[in-house]
Amino acid sequence: MSRRAEDMQSIKPNIIFYPGGLVEPESYSPLARELAKRGHRVYVAEMPLNLAIFGQNTVGNWVKGLE
């Protein structure tokens, strides 16, 4: 296996949580920490009124801010 293929296998996907259903973003902290320990980058978006329906494009706005 080439070095590049090995590198690709070691890459962990980013994980983004969209809290909803009136759940506080902090509720995702235990799971987010466990995933981060395993090498994932974990993001928990804050939603208006803790309802994901009101923040549907949150990640899209994050990406635009990085450009």
UniProtKB/TrEMBL annotation:
Pfam families reported in the protein's UniProt record: Abhydrolase_5 (PF12695)
Listed GO MF terms: hydrolase activity
Alpha/beta hydrolase fold-5 domain residues: 15-61
Domain of life according to the entry: Bacteria
InterPro entries: AB_hydrolase_5, AB_hydrolase_fold
Protein name (record): Alpha/beta hydrolase fold-5 domain-containing protein
